Amino acid sequence: MNMNEQLKAMNDFINSEEGKKSMMDYFNSLERLKQHEDRWTDRMYNRIKDNIDESIEHLIKWYDSNKYRDREYKINYEPRETLLWVLFHVAEKHGRECTEQEMDIYANMFTGSMFVIGSYVIQVMNGQGSVIRIDKIC
Predict the structure, then answer these.
(1) What range does the domain containing 33 cover?
(2) For the chain, how many structural domains are there in total?
(3) What pTM value is reported for the model?
């Protein structure tokens, strides 16, 4: 099958009832995923909003603990940091964007997005994967 035949086959599928249903199913799954993320973000914010700094320190302490790391490695996982991703979304939604001065201090060549919440800068760093970095503002 040459390139033109492949393009025609893809167009035929996209314009068919099956293709339209497939696209709608895909977009609906993305919407459900976004709603799930929003619920977790709101849930975490409601739990930590009265004591943001202490809650962030608690999360950092837990994820940095040997107990947590050993438990993850024992089940053959690279230590997951799911709640730090939720915390990033909390900062994105309820925090503020970093100032240029904060960007100069805390950002690096891998920084994707950065937000301030409480006394912390929370950023996503992208390289051969993505990680959350949290810095206390001095």
Answers:
(1) 3-136
(2) 1
(3) 0.82
